[in-house]
Write a structure and sequence with these properties.
single chain; about 400 residues; alpha+beta; 21 strands; about 35% helix
Amino acid sequence: MSRIIIVGGGAAGFFAAITAAERNPENEVIILEKGKKVLQKVKISGGGRCNVTHACFTPRDLVEFYPRGKKELLGPFHTFMTGDTMEWFENRGVPLKIEDDNRIFPESNSSQTIIDCLVNSAEQAGVKILFNQNVQSIDILEKGFDVKTTETNFSADKLLIAAGSNPKVWSLSETLGHSIVAPVPSLFTFNINDKRIQELPGISVPNATVKIAGTKLEDFGPLLITHWGMSGPAILKMSAFGARVLAELGYQFQVEVNWISKSTENTLDQLKNLQKELNKKVIVLKSPFSDIPKRLWEQLVLNSEIETNHRWVDLSKKQLDSLSKQLTKGVFQANGKSTFKDEFVTAGGVNLKEINFKRFESKLHKNLFFAGEVLNIDAVTGGFNFQNAWTGGYIAGLSMSED
C-alpha cells in the first residue's frame, strides 16, 4: 500500500486521483486543496458550461493546437485523448455534445455536471479531499516526501503536483531542483485605439489574415472588433503562439490586417472591375465583399480618402490603390493587451525537458509527478487546455497506481 498525495484540487489532480484509486484500491489517495472549494477553474470555464475537450481525434492534428507542449504531448495523446475523455465522462453518466465549432460540452450546458461527476467519482473510489491545505514546503526524504501545509504535515510515498499556473507552486517546484520557464500571459486580445474601428464593437469578419510587423507571426480566421480593440480566434491564437515574442515587444506593436485574405494585386483588379460594373452607384452604400459588413466597409472607404458621395466611376487610380491596401494591408497600432481574468492562461512553468512524458514523472526524483498547467504547456481556446489536464492526470494516475 502506498500513500499518494496530490497537491491541487483541479482537473488534472482529480483525474489523477480517481485513476490511481480505481486502478489500485489498496492505495491511500489524498487531494490537498488550498481553498474551500475544488475545481473552480472547471466551474467558470466556457462561460459556466465547461468546454470539456475538442472534437479532434488524431494525435498529430491535436498537438498542433499547443504552442508549448506540442512535441511532448504526441506520445501521451496516443495513450489518452479526446475520444477517451468523452468515453470516460459518458461511462459515468455525463452525456457530452459536439457543437458546430467542434467544442465539446456536457449536454446539461452546466459545468456543475462535470464537477459533480469528478467529485462523486473521487469519493466512490475512496479518495480523501482535504480543504484549506495551503502547502508551505515539500521535502524529499530517503523514501518518499514530507508535505507541510498550514494545517499539518503529510508523509507521501508518491507525490503529484497539479496546482496549475501558480507562482507559489512553481517556487516549491524549484526547491525540489526543477527549473521554471518564466511565465508570460497567453490568450489575450489586442488593445487598439483607431478611428477606423472605434464605433464598430461587435462587428466580425470570418476570414481575416493577421500579421505582426517585424516578426514571423501570422494567423488566419475570424476576427472580432471589440470596445478595446481586436479579438476573435485569429487574434487569440496569435497571442498564444506569439506569447513570448509579444511580451518582448512590451505589447507595443503594429498589426497588419488583411480583412478578405486576398492579395493586394488581386483586390486592386477586383476593385477596377467593380468600378466598371457599379459605375454610378455610391461606393459607401453597399459593401461588394460578402465578408465585409457595411459599417466596416464605410470606414475602410472613408479612410481611403474617398468622400461619402463618391460614385465608383469617380474613383481615381490613387483612391483605388488606397482602398485595396485598406482591405488587405490595414495597419493598426496595438498598445497593450486585455486578458480573460477568470480564464487566464499562462505560458510558462516547469521545464518540459525535466519530465518523463511516458509517466509524467520527474526525471530528477523518482515518484514525483507533474500534470496540468504547472508544466510549461498551454493551448489555444476550445477545450485543449482541459484535454492536457485529462491526459496528464490520467497517465500520472496510472503511473502512481503501480506498486
